[in-house]
């Protein structure tokens, strides 16, 4: 009997995490999904609603500016950002995710690239006027999150904006009671994206439209 795709998704994640390979399962999952043997649970086929809301409220003009989409998956968020005029780079650790992004958006002006947030190219340091991080940090085990967060913050150019969208974890839920993936972010984790020159300027907790008991962060930061 063929395995249920949702069961396959959990199995693929667990096998990799049990091997102490916290990022290997993304490629395995996208590759299995490309064969119709698993589902990518976060692949919405559209941009994230909280990014759509931020763009419609802020009306950013990306002309002459650069944007970076972290853990882009199959590219739906990147396409929204490129449409605002940004010279947009979008990266993912999974080569199959990037191939799928190319296939989904064949005429795209975004640059889709395989790269690792935990070891980003040196020339990305403080290089992007807009950095969008949606659900990548929370997809990493909690012990890797501080390093991942630090790398995200180092991508933002002087005067640039960082937008973080993540599932919210209740403040009183300890790490060892959080059984991911995903490992949602505490308020303290959201605060830890700040640095002396990268300031949290707006923080919202928004209920999920499909399940109002699930809360998500939408956090906007600005670099001096
Ligand atoms: C939960 S998914 C979210 C995807 C997309 N941002 C979205 O919201 O639909 C996390 C994504 O981050 C990618 N990812 C995980 N670890 C990464 C890393 N170290 N560097 C780059 N991408 C990574 C995964 O391959 C996956 O596409």
From TrEMBL:
UniProt keyword Transferase, yes or no: yes
UniProt xrefs under Pfam families: Methyltransf_25
Gene Ontology molecular function: S-adenosylmethionine-dependent methyltransferase activity
Sorted UniProt keywords: Methyltransferase, S-adenosyl-L-methionine, Transferase
InterPro entries listed in its UniProt record: Methyltransf_25, SAM-dependent_MTases_sf, TPMT
Gene Ontology BP terms: methylation
Methyltransferase domain boundaries: 68-160
UniProt keyword annotation of RNA-binding present: no
Domain of life per record: Bacteria
Protein name (database record): Methyltransferase family protein
Naturally occurring in which organism (per UniProt): Kribbella jejuensis
